[in-house]
Design brief:
Length: 465
């Protein structure tokens, strides 16, 4: 079995990676369009690339893939820039990025990942066709509409399962402990990627969590605010932890709902021209706390910086990531896109936070179990192994109350028994070895403990009270 590292607190969703960017619309340029044709210069220019590929196609000892060579040339060109955010997105990557920023797509609504050459269901998204059809965690998708997926990459599976709403697809699925291949016929629907979660806590304290900033985040945040107000909200916690950013426009739209009239952020382009985004409302007008951590990035730092500089909210948590640059995403003629930095932003008080981050008003370390959850752990760990991952496993099981022995990093009989006890309690299949289902249950259990031990929210509640 191939070793697969899983970060416990990260779910790999159907749309694959979340690509965080602010978008050219934020600085007044187009987000898409064909690249102008560039004349070839006397020294060769683009002709040299074509000539090199022709030589390789004719004489190289191994067969070469023209498209792969071209894509590597595009990537190499952008890697030479002194711009860590610059890059070439192939058509599949660009489409996935658009899904994340638009917040919706046509599909079946399942979270998947690759393990041992199989596209495997992590979890169906609640209320989607995938869940209603009966797909479940651990299912291996063998084919989509007769197209074999065994040994294929995740992008191929994603593209086959996505499509126009009200169109159908057929899945062949291999399910653990079921001998026959299962067949599912599912009708695609519009799947909305939820970026806003909310609830009313005790003492009339509203809680809104932003997981990223997409086209729909602003309107969803407003709807959450309106609902909480109707329920009698008197103060608000905004959770920006582990938020990788997204669209600048969405962050500005949300800030406009919260802070009083005045600057939200200042964006300066390469020519030194500064554009200031302003709040035009009176703000929310109630006590607020914003929760942040080292994975609060870009657009989440725009919002957090505006809340802090204007005195609208108290920042609680740990230092933020420190990404204060604005990227332009320009569509190319081949369906891919080029991403590069076009501007940088500052907070309302014109603080420079790039590569520095925001320092919380009240610094609070995360619960230890959350720190453990950020460390990789393999699904192939078994008795006799010795590694840092085994040490992490011992610590996690100790936090859960199953392992009361010395932390050695060695997978011994005591650890086997502790893991078997955990698996038995959660109906995970008692093997005494790690498995995908065990990792899934670790994630769920860690989420439960995180909520119980969430000192940041406890501190936030005390501040608001």
């Amino acid at each position: 079995m191939k070793t697969k590292n899983i970060i416990l607190v990260v779910l790999i969703i159907l749309a694959t990676n979340i690509l965080t960017f602010f978008g050219a619309a934020a600085v007044g340029t187009e987000t898409s369009g064909e690249i102008d044709e560039q004349p070839l210069n006397a020294s060769g220019g683009l002709e040299v690339i074509e000539e090199i590929i022709a030589v390789l196609e004719a004489d190289h000892i191994d067969e070469v893939d023209r498209e792969e060579l071209l894509e590597n040339a595009y990537k190499g060109m952008l890697e030479k820039l002194e711009d860590t955010e610059a890059g070439y997105l192939d058509p599949d990557e660009y489409e996935n990025m658009q899904v994340q920023t638009q917040g919706t797509y046509g599909g079946v609504g399942i979270e998947v990942y690759i393990e041992d050459d199989y596209v495997t269901v992590l979890s169906p998204i609640s209320g989607t066709p995938g869940q209603e059809a009966g797909l479940s965690s651990g299912d291996r998708i063998i084919s989509v509409d007769g197209v074999n997926l065994v040994g294929e990459d995740l992008n191929k599976a994603v593209n086959l399962m996505r499509g126009e709403p009200d169109t159908s697809l057929k899945l062949e699925v291999e399910r653990p402990n079921v001998d026959a291949i299962l067949e599912f016929e599912i009708t695609r629907e519009i799947i909305e990627l939820e970026t806003v979660e909310y609830e009313m806590l005790e003492n009339s304290i509203g809680y809104i969590r932003l997981t990223s900033f997409s086209d729909t985040s602003g309107q969803d945040f407003k709807a959450a605010l309106d609902t909480l107000k109707q329920e009698g909200m008197e103060s608000l916690i905004i959770d920006l932890r582990n938020n990788p950013g997204g669209l600048l426009g969405a962050a500005v739209e949300i800030a406009d709902l919260l802070i009083p009239e005045g600057p939200i952020t200042h964006v300066t382009d390469g020519a030194g021209i500064m554009q200031t985004y302003l709040s035009e409302t009176e703000g929310l007008g109630m006590p607020m706390v914003a929760l942040v951590n080292g994975a609060s990035v870009s657009a989440s730092e725009v919002l957090a910086g505006a809340l802090q500089d204007t005195g609208t909210a108290t920042l609680v948590g740990t230092q933020t990531f420190g990404k204060a640059s604005v990227q332009n995403i320009r569509e190319l003629g081949n369906g891919g896109a080029v991403r590069h930095t076009v501007a940088q932003y500052k907070t309302p008080d014109k603080r420079v936070i790039h590569e520095v981050g925001l320092t919380p008003d009240l610094e609070v370390d995360p619960p230890y179990i959350v720190e453990l959850a950020m460390k990789p752990i393999s699904t192939s760990l078994a008795r006799g192994d010795e590694s840092e991952e085994v040490e992490t496993l011992q610590k996690i099981l100790r936090e859960f109350g199953y392992y009361n022995h010395e932390i050695t990093g060695y997978f011994d009989q005591a650890l086997t028994e502790a893991l078997e006890e955990f698996q038995a309690d959660y109906d995970a299949g008692v093997t005494g070895e790690m498995s995908d289902m065990t990792v899934r249950l670790f994630h769920e259990k860690i989420e439960e403990l995180r909520k119980e031990q969430d000192y940041k929210i406890i501190e936030a509640l005390e501040l608001l009270q």
